[in-house]
Design brief:
Layout lengths: L2 H10 L5 E9 L2 E6 L4 E6 L1 H5 L9 E5 L7 E6 L5 E3 L2 E3 L3 E6 L7 H13 L3 E6 L8 H9 L6 E3 L8 H8 L4 E6 L5 H9 L23 E5 L2 E5 L45 H7 L5 H19 L4
Parallel strand pairs: 3-5, 8-9, 8-11, 9-10, 11-13
Antiparallel strand pairs: 1-2, 1-4, 2-3, 4-5, 6-7, 12-13
Amino acid sequence: MGENAEMTEIQEAGLSLERGVLVRGIGGFYTIRDDNHREYTVRCKKKFRREKISPMVGDEVLFSSGQGEEHGWIEEILPRKTECLRPPVANVTRLVIVIAPVPKPDMILVDRQISRAYNQGMDVLLVVTKYDLDPELPGQIENEYRTAGIPVISVSARDGTGLEILKKALADGKLSCFTGQSGAGKSTLLNALLGLELETGDISRKIERGKNTTRHTELIEKNGIRVMDTAGFNLLEAEKELDPAYLKERYPEFEPYEGKCRFDECLHDREPGCAVQEAADKGEISMERLKRYRILLAEAREIWRERYD
């Protein structure tokens, strides 16, 4: 159902509703912010559960505001432009993936997120934080993603390196979502970037794994920046419906070489005469990205073969 049809149906039912954006949800209660930055606490009607729809931070909704101490209700969730399942957010325009020297970067996880973001038409920005701990890491990340056209910004919340550059990149009105491994420093970075006081954690010395201090997703708006702070994670499940033949279309650096391989249906998986492999051998694209692509391709093939089991 389109947005205009939804409005007409609600008006015919005699309901007077307001429009807003879901900015956080805790324990079955949701906070909605309207265009005048007023916030309302509401609950979600059971019809969404029957329809197997869960409200997400970033959702544009129609809601009743309630009276006095009585909470209001989410009446309609408007069509989503984009949707992420992990982190569970809606209508994101740009995915900001935070990478740090500690915990050790999981680049397969990074490439999974990039693949899903590109599939939905999102922009991607890589932010290498804790620059003071490893000044060489940003250069390594830049070399891997340069030909993919993905910008990389190095920052340090401790000494302020790169913060102004990041502020400028984010202050364009787009809705950004900060995501990444637990302990990568997303909340610490947002505190330094926007003058907030979000809870932060540290790293376990034994296993160098981050402690997850962000327990829920929140949409923050300040100084012209619209950004979501999300809980970190260390695993992202493989896509169940991805046809392996289309994975390569999510790698912009492969595009200049399409049609130049010996075989028309080349998937760039060690086939003879593969132009993408030759480009990687010459250093024209990242060999590391190509290796990780093949890992994800093998995974997609296995899932695709087993889809009818």
